[in-house]
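Notes from hallway chat w/ T.B., transcribed later so I don't forget. T.B. wanted the structure written out for a chain they're using in a teaching module, and asked if we could keep both sequence and structure tokens in one place. Agreed to drop them here.
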Amino acid sequence: MFRAWNARDRAAAARVATPSAVRSIFAYVYRTPDVFAGCAGNACRFTHTSVRVPGGHNGLLLVVSGSKVTRVYQSRHVTRPSTAAGHLFRAWQKGDRNLGLEVAAKPAVTTLFRVRFDPRGVPYFFQGCTKEKTGYGCAYSYEGGAMFMRLKGSAVRGYEVRSIDYLAD
């Protein structure tokens, strides 16, 4: 699939990947990653070494099931802090760490996923994002406290959630 994508050959990609995986990889906004970083289990990683992109993937993660690529996780170019925070929050709700790594650094994902999201637990309310000295802070409140996502980046470079803090009432 990676070779087909490099050649911009959608037909060849469709022979080795699901339609959603093909759409996903062909929508990747950054240039082709420089390095094949290997496979672990059914996931193969391609990373950038000459350019910094947001998120913990630093490129592409292709998930294979049987003989087809079924999912492509990618570093995302997100132009608004609230969009990056929402993407990470939805990834947590789904229990999908790799989805979170599309817009967040590994330490932020590790902190957030220490606790499983409980849909029957306390509801979270998005409070918005505010400019801070070193970037942006996006807040989610819940009964008894709040979660703060700290982001860095810009509309040009893309925003990335770098860390998560909690505040208890």
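Follow-up for T.B.: The chain has two domains: 2-74, 81-168. Might be a good example for the class.
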